[in-house]
Amino acid sequence: MENNKIVYRTFITTMQMLRDRNYSEGSLLSISKNQVVNISKLIDMSFNDFMLSFGKDNALEIDYSKLNFIFNKESPNHKIYISWFEEDKIDQTVASETIKKIEKLYSSDREKVNRAIFILKNKNVLTPSAKKILTQDIATSEAKHNITIDIFLIQELIINITEHKFVPKHIVLSEDDKNEFLSKTRIKPNQLPKIQLIDPVCKYLGVSKGDIIKIQRLNTDGTVYISYRYTV
Fold first, then answer.
1. Which of 20, 34, 205, 219 is deepest in the core (most CB within 10 A)?
2. Which CATH number fits domain 2-157: 3.40.50.300, 3.40.50.2000, 3.40.1340.10, 3.40.190.10?
3. Domain 163-231 bears CATH identifier 3.90.940.20
4. What residue ranges do the domains of the chain occupy?
């Protein structure tokens, strides 16, 4: 039961993460990709409702095959695939088959999934060959697929890091806001202080290389200090 509650907490954090990445609604693939689910309702789901929806027939164990989702972002048109993995080991074959399954979900280029979130039991689940496939840089000529994959461990998502009182608010500037900021300040992006993609908040927000992050820190006197970081 305790493991079920841990997975439930990662589920709520993941739904919050998708909301904060501006995804709004999607579908539960174990039912139908045409049946729409609202992300805000999933965030508010109780543990009992979670087990009724995603548990096995006895409602005592989680059915991981049900924890597969597609969510949409209207502007720009993006689709993201989310899945929890029960496996103790994911090798090259499993990784490749999972990619192929995602690529076959939609037929048209407009509807294709371009991002995915995989949630694993622990860091030892992936074999080196599987990790190479899943964590490739899609911008390189050696890329085997066109899906950017974010890999999280269950323990990384038990709590929402952005809700911690010592974590300042991070905002990813849109392309228009980024261009306006650079024009107004007359600086080049690489002149800004750097922040790495592996930063926990950057990972949570799904930041890409070259993004500019606006960071708002609340001072003790109630004022807000704003700084900017360039993602590398």
1. 205
2. 3.40.1340.10
3. yes
4. 2-157, 163-231
Is the whole-model pTM more than 0.90? Answer: no
CA distances from 122 to 34, 82, 106, 156 (A): 32, 17, 30, 10
Dihedral sign, Cα of residue 86, residue 91, residue 97, residue 102: positive
Structure tokens at 29: 């693939």
